[in-house]
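Q: Predict the assembly, please.
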Amino acid sequence: MKRILTFAAALAVLALVAAAPGLTQEDVRLLAAPAFAPARRAPVPFNHDQHNAAGNIEACNTCHHAYQDGRLAPDDDSVGMACADCHAADGNSPVHLMNAYHRQCSGCHEQSGKGPVMCGECHPRE
Amino acid sequence: MHDVYQFVSGPLAWAAFGLFVGGSLYRIAAMILLARRKDVQVFEYMSLRYALRSILHWSVPFMSVNMRQRPVMTVVTFLFHLCLILSPLFVLGHVVMFDTSFGFSWPALPDQLADAMTLVVVAACLFFLGRRLSLAEAQYVTSFSDYAILALVAAPFITGFLAYHQFLDYQLMLVLHIVSGEAMLVAIPFTRLSHMLFAPFTRAYIGSEFGAVRHARDW
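A: Predicted assembly structure:
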């Protein structure tokens, strides 16, 4: 009985720890847009605040860009929208979802000389 | 390492593909000019029907006497060439990189299949190595460059396997994978790997001469 209780307690702690990520932006989240399912590569671990501190990113629209009539609206942002709202995963958009991520992330990393650029640096082995 | 990666996956990749395509066109053009000057009968005897007949017999496993006499070599060499050509063209990582850069993509192989095909290429290279070392008739026509070419062909597949599985130093493996792949690409027009370019012509001529002149089979 004692063993079962210990096991149950351990399970409960595990469940709490597992549920914690994703609750706040301070936590490491996995970038796993549902549109990618079933994904062929592991989702990318991403810590929003740490990323912006390391990259000296202050303006939201550096990443959360907004386009109007096919043109970048430099004073606007798209905070609160999912990338997949504009970038369809199935290729029915000028820049499909995977290219949107790859170009936005590694494109900026390459230009700035900071951050991961090789496939496996973002997509860890499962 | 990122600077190195960006160099080998950017400017060096363009240079490698340029040398591969340009070098291949140059080698074929130079060979045609040489044949015009020294072997005019190549053009006179060339026959589409006998050329295709010969190419067919040497493209289907066990359709030639030679292949039936060496069944192990036949199976290994067909699997080797199939995997060697298809896996780099259809492995997911390559398709995705192409899509990211050019916005154009095509269906990719399942990861496990591409993985198995990679191992087939490496195993076949080991088989060819053992064959060159142990068979007297192979040893007789083997020089150092043959071993170097085998290593050159195996290298991108070994490093690709290691990079995909993120075994050892991932960044180093990926850079080595790209560089060795580029080296192999550039070597195609300028080494014995040029059989990739010339084999169809060689086969076509032998088929034509045997078919139209000697009235014999060449398979």
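Confidence is low (pLDDT under 50) at residues 19-23 of chain A. The beta strands of chain A are 29-31, 44-46, 67-68, 71-72.
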